[in-house]
Write a structure and sequence with these properties.
- The complex is a heterodimer of chains A (220) and B (146).
- Chain A has 220 residues and is mainly beta.
- Helices cover 15% and strands 60% of the residues of chain A.
- Chain A folds into 2 domains: 30 residues; 185 residues, Porin, CATH 2.40.160.20.
- In chain A, the strands form 2 sheets. An 8-stranded antiparallel barrel of chain A has the order 1-2-3-4-5-6-7-10.
- Chain A is elongated.
- Chain A starts with a helix and ends with a strand.
- Chain B has 1 helix and 10 strands; from the N terminus they run H-E-E-E-E-E-E-E-E-E-E.
- In chain B, strands 2, 3, 4, 6, 7 and 8 form a 6-stranded antiparallel beta sheet that branches.
- Classes of the chains: A mainly beta (220), B mainly beta (146).
């Protein structure tokens, strides 16, 4: 009887000790181990180089169930183009939300190669001034504005996240953007969707070169 | 490998959507005169006046008998009234339309499309819009039947 009681007690003690040694994610795989904040260096580069496109983008992702990452991007995007017969200005804010699936599950540093999906949404304004010449009539200058436009689109993504040192990470994200839809274009056809690109293109490529800082949740 | 092929294919699809830089937008409407058998009807035109802009069009003696003519709509208005003085009489027609701007690209600039052409008033017995979008590659927009 004492031997049975001792065996059960020993099993319980070993199980408890094992549970205390296991990380939280093993006990609860849905519990995130950290959050990563980042930004896009290409957007900063374009802004500094005074390209027609200016803006910034912030990124954040958080892991759950080891393989999956919940991703949120938020940014501002402005475009100023000189046309052959006028000038276009557009600016607005956008966000993207989605899931990345990591395929490097055994990497001890949590480096990741991922494929993911995003839903994007933008709110923006546009202004267009253009000149037209019609035979027999006076030249015409027209200025029009689209205000409070809303756009949505989808994205397939792939990329890398590599731990450089400590909490500092670098990586890139390639984006295949598709199915843009714009609402509110009552005056002229939308030209440039912040976060997406040319509104008249049903598909578009995007690329971000990013730096991150990862903040772990508790000691791992 | 299959995944790489998929992304290469998607890249090719994205590159195929280059902007079209052939401007087809115009403010000219093609008007065709026809008889009741739906055949072109050569009509002697003495004078056409754009009552909206005040422009008078007179045809040269060599081509003053024709079944087809292209006339510009007033670009700064949403309605153009035309008065036809022909061998068959004097008639007027008021045509309305909407305009919409589209930016094609920095190199191609912005286009102004004339759309939704409609007859809002006329003294012609029979007139109809057969193509409401004014494009330079479309021959006939309005048919007048005598």
């Amino acid at each position: 009887m004492w031997r049975l009681f001792f065996s059960v007690w020993m099993c319980g003690a070993v199980a408890t000790a094992t549970a205390q040694l296991l990380p939280d994610t093993v006990r609860n795989p849905w519990r995130p181990t950290g959050i990563r904040f980042g930004t896009d260096l290409i957007a900063f580069g374009k802004t500094l180089a005074r390209q027609p496109l200016t803006g910034w983008e912030l990124n954040a992702d958080v892991d759950f169930k080891t393989r999956y990452y919940l991703v949120l991007d938020y940014g501002q995007w402005g475009r100023e183009e000189l046309l052959t017969n006028g000038q276009y200005q557009g600016s607005g804010r956008y966000w993207r939300a989605g899931i990345d699936v990591n395929f490097l599950l055994k990497d001890p540093d949590r480096n990741m190669f991922f494929i993911g999906f995003r839903v994007g949404r933008a709110n923006f304004d546009e202004r267009l001034t253009s000149q037209f010449a019609y035979e027999g009539f006076e030249p015409l200058t027209i200025t029009q504005a689209n205000t409070q436009l809303r756009a949505t689109w989808g994205e397939l993504t792939t990329g890398l996240r590599v731990k450089v040192v400590g909490g500092f990470w670098m990586g890139y994200t390639a984006r295949f953007k598709f199915a843009p839809g714009v609402r509110g274009t009552e005056v002229f056809d939308a030209y440039d969707i912040p976060g997406y690109g040319r509104a008249d293109r049903s598909t578009y490529w995007g690329f971000n070169y990013q730096v991150f800082w990862r903040v772990p949740f508790g000691k791992r | 490998m299959r995944l790489a092929s998929l992304f290469f294919l998607l890249g090719c699809v994205a590159c195929l959507s280059a902007p079209d830089c052939i401007p087809l937008s115009t403010n000219e409407a093609g008007i065709e005169f026809k008889n009741r058998s739906n055949q072109p009807l050569a009509t002697g035109i003495q004078r056409i006046t754009n009552l909206t802009s005040g422009i008078v069009y007179t045809l040269t003696p060599e081509n003053d008998t024709t079944s087809y003519i292209r006339l510009p709509m007033a670009p700064d208005r949403d309605t153009t009234v035309l008065r036809f003085v022909t061998d068959l009489g004097i008639d007027t027609v008021a045509l309305s339309y909407t305009t919409r701007l589209t930016v094609v690209s920095p190199e191609c600039g912005a286009l102004r499309n004339f759309n939704d052409l409609r007859v809002i008033n006329t003294s012609f017995d029979s007139i109809r819009v057969i193509n409401p979008l004014l494009r330079s590659n479309v021959r006939t927009h309005v048919e007048i039947v005598f």
